[in-house]
Amino acid sequence: xxxxxTLLALLVFAAGQVFAQTNTARVFNLEEAIEYALTNSFSxxxxxxxxxAARQNLTAREGAFKLNADLSLVAPNYAExxxxxxxxxxxxxxxxxxxxxxxxxxNINQPLPSDGVFTLDTRLYRDLNSVRQANLTNEQVExxxxxxxxxxxxxxxxxxxxxxxxxxxxxxxxSTLQLQRTELxxxxxxxxxxxxxxxxxxxxxxxxxxxxxxxxxxxLASKKFAAGLIPEVDALQTEVDLxxxxxxxxxxxxxxxxxxxxxxxxxxxxLSQAVGVRTDISYQPFEIDLSQAVAFALENRSEIRExxxxxRLRELxxxxxxxxxxxxxxxxxxxxLSGVSNPELPLSTGxxxxxxxxxxxxxxxxxxxxxxxxxxxxxxxxxxxxxxxAAAQARIDQAELDLENESITVQRExxxxxxxxxxxxNRLEVLEKSQNVAERSYEISLARFNNGDITTQDLALDxxxxxxxRSTFLDAYIDYQVAVADLKRKTLYDFEKNVSLAx
Length: 503
Fold this sequence. Notes:
Layout: H1 2-22, E1 26-28, H2 30-40, H3 42-63, E2 68-85, E3 93-111, E4 117-133, E5 136-155, H4 160-226, H5 232-267, E6 275-277, H6 290-300, H7 302-323, E7 328-340, H8 351-364, E8 368-376, H9 384-450, H10 456-491, E9 493-494, E10 499-500
Parallel strand pairs: 1-6
Antiparallel strand pairs: 2-3, 3-4, 4-5, 5-7, 7-8, 9-10
Helix pairs in contact: 1-5, 2-4, 3-4, 4-5, 4-7, 4-10, 6-9, 7-9, 9-10
């Protein structure tokens, strides 16, 4: 049974090697993996679309202050109806009414920063009317021309244009901050996945090295047993240890494949692409100023800046709500020129002549002009607006509380991550020494086993200690690098290079 399991493990390993040779692996270092993920990962693409939506919304709000125009056409509007004329004291008479209308209107609008608007209004229409009773038909064609200027300005109320622009700008800033935070989270996630893949790769190397060492011990034990130098039980034990080493290598292969798939998904690489990582396991200790780390985080963390933006948005909301019950006024004015074609013109008159006639009438007709000032004031709403304002104020207070709590959370997180970095570094230094001692101890034990001074069990114990020391050191190295990456993410400062990561 053990031989069958060993054969299966070797076959799987061989198949993996063949696949790796036929599918050229793409090898990343950490910087290359981060760069690839910042372009291709799902999170970056998703937040990028959110940022684009906020950018376009801001562009639309800015466009609300600029000149715009709209055109409407009716070409044509035809109707024919049959109606009685019920004149008191007379018999009913029936008439057929017909109308064919062609109409065009062009408005050119210039919004004002004060939330008012100037409008240049141009209207043209041609109307053909007919009335038919029995055998008598009356028809008339007319052409109407109008050019005017209109002005409208709300008073004593919130400026919706400026309010909308500020809201859009704040939303865009918030989306930008969310993108920055997402980038930092992606960098941290890629770093974690990269190091986990590196851990799995090194773990496989450790297991392969362990297997090689066990093969050497098995060969030595077999020779010693054949020479009658050790009992059979010792030789059998080395065979069992060899099978266990092969099984552990097979498990390490499976774990490596799992971490490869996770890594590829996080950076946005196809799962069919073979991948590898390379890194230097050396590390350089560096100093961390806790007060500086806290200060950098409080100044640059996007969560705090977003909390400030949320508070400002709540303040704008209360302006809108409060304005619903405020005293309002509106001033409007118009000045236009209008003309109608001569009603005595024949029906066969062309559009140009009709327009010319209406234009001549426009020049002679008195100008239309007017101005109005209106006021409005809600008198009683059963406390609806007062409750809405109170609710908006509660949301402002909540935003203020969230801001304070976020500040405390950031300070706590910085203290925690600095402690984790220092703890991981101290642990790493101790375990590095332990690994060096375990390597030297195994070399001595192997030599003593060759000389017949110790048994296979003693050699196996030292080999297990070496494997454990290497695995423990690797775990400590990964924990240290993850803690350092988390420190960069949460402080937006690289203490290794003494550079700020804030944008």
